[in-house]
Amino acid sequence: MSYTYDDQNIFAKILRGEIPNGTVKETEHTLAFNDIQPQAPHHVLVIPKGAYVTADHFAASASDAEIADFWRCFGTICGELGVTPDQGDGYRIISNAGQNGVQDVPHFHLHILAGRPLGRMLNS
Ligand code: 5GP
């Protein structure tokens, strides 16, 4: 695995506190904040604090503690938003990677989208 992390990406700046964000939750290894251009009533971005470019990079290189913290944080947010299918109307998670995935920010992030019907998974 040969990812090079660009520490000037916008989420790195958010993690360093150089750019404000609408924090939803912060844990030891994870930060979650509202997307600046929400595509649904709930649009939360969940990112690891570590320097990982994509989901596969995170899965291969993060520590067990980072991975557990990330997914626990994700689950807690879904519960707090009230969107889990057992209590609410559901959600979608997306993680874009690379060129075909149309990833704009090269720091691994999970989009949580919820609060309206989200249509079929892909349009094209
Ligand atoms: P990607 O296309 O990389 O999967 O998604 C990047 C997301 O980051 C987009 O949904 C975009 O709206 C969001 N975004 C870009 N810049 C900022 C920012 O400065 N603050 C916040 N909160 N979100 C941002």
Summary of the model, kept short:
With 124 residues, this protein is an alpha+beta fold.
Descriptive report:
It is globular and about 40 Å long. Strand 2 (30-34) and strand 3 form a beta hairpin. The chain is of the alpha+beta class and 124 residues long. It has a single domain (10-114), classed as HIT-like (HIT family, subunit A), CATH 3.30.428. The protein contains four helices and five strands; from the N terminus they run H-E-E-E-H-H-E-H-E. The longest helix has 18 residues, at 64-81. The protein has helices at 10-15, 55-61, 64-81, 98-101; strands at residues 23-26, 30-34, 42-48, 91-94, 110-114. The structure holds guanosine-5'-monophosphate. The site of guanosine-5'-monophosphate (5GP) has 13 residues, from strand 2.
List keywords for this structure.
5-stranded antiparallel β-sheet; binds guanosine-5'-monophosphate; globular; HIT family, subunit A; alpha+beta; 5 strands
